From TrEMBL, chain A:
Top-level taxon of origin: Bacteria
GO molecular function: hydrolase activity
Native species: Dyella solisilvae
Annotated SUPFAM superfamilies: alpha/beta-Hydrolases (SSF53474)
Alphabetical keyword list: Hydrolase
The name this protein goes by in its record: Alpha/beta hydrolase
UniProtKB/TrEMBL annotation, chain B:
Signal peptide: none
Coiled coil (UniProt feature): none
Upper classification of the organism: Bacteria, Pseudomonadati, Pseudomonadota, Gammaproteobacteria, Lysobacterales
Record's keyword annotation contains Ribonucleoprotein: no
Organism: Dyella solisilvae
Record's protein name: Alpha/beta fold hydrolase
Keyword Cell membrane attributed: no
Amino acid sequence: MREQAFRFGRARHLVGIAGLPDSGDGTVGVILLNAGLVHRVGPFRLHVDLTRRLNALGYPTLRFDLSTIGDSGATGESQSRNQQICADVDDAMALLGQHSGCQRFVLVGLCSGAEKAHNVAREAHSHEKLAGAIFLDNFAYRTLGFRVRHYLPRMFNVRRWKRWLARKAQEHAAGDVPVFGVAPLPQHVVREDLGSMVARGLKLDLVYTGGIHMYFNHHRQFRECFGSVVDDPAVSTRYLRETDHTYVLTGDRQRLIDHIGEWLTRHFPIAQAGALP
Amino acid sequence: MTRPDHELPFFFGEGGELFGIYHQAARPSARAVLLCAPLGQDHMRCHRIYRQLACTLAGQGMPVLRFDYYGCGDSAGGSAEVDWLRCLDDIAAAARELRARSGAERVLAFGARLGASMALAAAAAAAGIDEVVAWDPVVDGAAFVATQDAMQEAMRQDTHRFVCPRQRAEAVGQWLGFPVSSTLRGQVEGWRAASRVAPSLLLDSMARPAAEWRQLFGEKTRIESLEPTTPWDDLARLEAAVISHPLVQAVASHWRERAYA
């Protein structure tokens, strides 16, 4: 296996590291997107450890920085952020395809990286190049089940009520403050998107953690949020209650990497799989 | 900002194990700058500001190399393999690479936290470093280790991060997201800054009294305080990037002034 550094893209504005196994032709390539503003090595170097493990299994990989994140620059094109991301991922697929020979890809994204992967995968023609996606702490919605599980144990806790009232009083005193943020896709849209991705043949892996317990708190919530699509054999779901959002403990990272390796080898087996390092 | 095309990512060193990004300057220069990263989560948090600093310095005519030590960032090696002595060797290898690429006679080093400590140690070990600018350098390794241990212990019990506190055994041998070998731990614990090689400029954003720095490094070091203070050891900011425009300006103007001195 060898790693190569590239400056690439339609404006040579992107920086990435390709991991190219000695064998593995004809399999899928795995592309990792930035988690928030963390550069391509990922939180606590998660992306480096993950790509090297996948390389050892025989999968070509690319960890890279999207436009204006990490070491990548801007193109100067007049595009929406979503259009930029789709074009950057297209550039990444072209690069990895050119150097590894693979023609189909799996995207991996954590947090906002998962949202970006989702936005790429929801494009109507994404299935022509995408074979699957791994969403780590992607979209989630406070369902009735979530509220029951979250609020019921707190209902008779006087200290919590006092804290809640104090917070509300503070918010009231502060008045209205402008909020600058990107609204998440509505629940019904994400539900339809997932159905459409599966219908187009994509394999999906949804891994959520206790790090987002303010809006996701049980494995059952996958079905509450997204409906029966999560029962489809093409969709895997996993809820890691004890783990934090960015996998700060080495054991948690190792378990995630093991899981992703197993998921890939199950859905995209390679003829000459490498041995686990 | 320089054009991204002027930032070249590549692997170098023995066996191509080290990853670096070379920031080309518009014209040849007698001086080039090596950016020595800190370790662990400080490295992650400083990535952005190191790039900003590199672009600024390259923009004012000094070629820059920033790089990852073995076991860090995009370089080869696992995170558990980081070793202080290997880091010093890597600094020497990076200085050689920078000289070869830029043609510069003098290599100046910048480092933050442990990156500054290692730049000073490398300069003392004749690693081809002619001058060091240090930002909040770690001067007492034992105190640094104690702080990292305390933060790691607080983090495993942090219920903003975890639904329930984690077992001590699950968090042992790590500092804030990164495994730490007993060798590295001992090496950092044994580090004490000495005045044998003092930085030309010391940037303090931890509100440490200037007299303490003076006592440590002597009169030749210029000391500048930066506002606001940098929350290096604030668990709530563990994953927030460290950004400081005053830092970039201070380093750039220091080396601009010295070019004409």
